[in-house]
Amino acid sequence: MAAIERCRTAALGGHVARCEDCAHTLIAYNSCRNRHCPKCQGAAAKQWLAEREAELLPVPYYHVVFTLPAAIADIAYQNKAVIYDLLFKASAETVLTIAADPKHLGARIGITAVLHTWGSAMTHHPHVHMIVPGGGIALDGSRWVACRPGFFLPVRVLSRLFRRLFLQKLTAAREAGALRFFGDHAHLNDARAFASYLAPPRQSEWVVYAKRPFAGPAAVLAYLARYTHRVAIANSRLIAFDDHGVSFKWKDYRIEGRDRYKVMTVEASEFIRRFLIHVLPAGFHRIRYYGLLASGSRADNIARARALLSAPAPQNQTDYAADPDQPLMLAHPCPHCGGRMIIIETFEPGCSPRTHPIGSIRIDTS
Fold first, then answer.
1. How far is C-alpha 30 from the geometric centre of its chain's CA atoms?
2. Side by side, which strands form the sheet with 287-291?
3. Predicted confidence band of residue 315 (pLDDT cuts 50, 70, 90)
């Protein structure tokens, strides 16, 4: 929260930029660059999407969601790093295993997985979103195997295997001493109590959802832009902050139609508490790649897939190094005349700019 509070303020320093055409001047404060900050993730999302764009294949893409049941989500909050990691591993292993089974697809597929820990009302709701191409490379590497039109993999089969794999891994983690319980769940440190706690989830149906294919590669990127670099809530959902609290839009998925869109108002302290629930452990990666998209062999696998699909490789984009003799500029043009904004001054954190021209305005910048 301290980083977010200081973001885009004088506490982090900044710079002054002046239009080289009309002399319009802007004072811009630096961003905190914290990965949980809603104001700092726009640039990171654009860069990530640009890198992924070159990897898209000319095939339908599917959206698959794996959700932890409520009982597991309760203990996940006390063991974020371990259980979120198990969620990634169990869901990815599930999809890769079923896809490789000749009874279903019989191919090696690629997965981009993104962790979400929130529901629309910012409550704790851990689940993984996966974007997968509708097919993969045959196990012998000889051809591209496409899934049936409009159908990726059987949801019930995915659900049952996901449940078994996750509970196996969770039990192993507890036996290895990797889990810690306290408060209302302190009794789960006892092996018998833990086994009893897992009995209902072993018998229940776990939620796995596979959506129909996207309209095309552009739709995939548009969807990913909403899911990769956002935490808990987007600024667009915030409505008001006053003496009554913080008001924001949320969606009640239990209701169909327009009535599902509602407004919730909570005290400021409760809003902050809900937001902080979703802060991830330090160093935890919430975007991961599996199968054909695993980092070590991604480039070779994508090239092979394109060859099997007879798809042209994307054109190489030339990287231009910054010219040290050119002045530093802002990425956006002058809001008055569209000219280049040249940085004429930088100032350290906690300091104020020396340049104070009449009519200058302050802007946000990263």
1. 23
2. 208-211, 61-67, 124-133, 110-118, 287-291
3. low
Q: How long a stretch of residues is the chain?
A: 366
d(CA 363, CA 114): 31
C-alpha–C-alpha distance, residues 198 and 170, integer Å = 10
- Euclidean distance between CA atoms 302 and 143, whole angstroms: 13
Token pair recorded at residue 52 = 């992924």
Residues 6 or more apart in contact with residue 54 via CB below 8 angstroms: 314
**Distance set, CA 283 to CA 55, 85, 271, 279, 287 (Å):** 25, 12, 25, 11, 12
* DSSP 8-state assignment for residue 324: T
Residue 5, helix vs strand vs coil: helix
Q: Which of 6, 7, 10, 15 is nearest to 355 (CA)?
A: 15
Q: Distance of alpha carbon 251 from its chain centroid, rounded? A: 19
User: What predicted TM-score, i.e. pTM, was given to this entire model?
Assistant: 0.81
Q: Give the pLDDT score at 41.
A: 67
Model pLDDT for residues 332-345, shown as the tens digit of each residue: 788 888 888 888 88
| DSSP symbol at 67 | E
What is the crossing angle of helices 217-227 and 41-53, to 10°? 150
Q: Side chain identity at 260, as an amino acid letter?
A: R
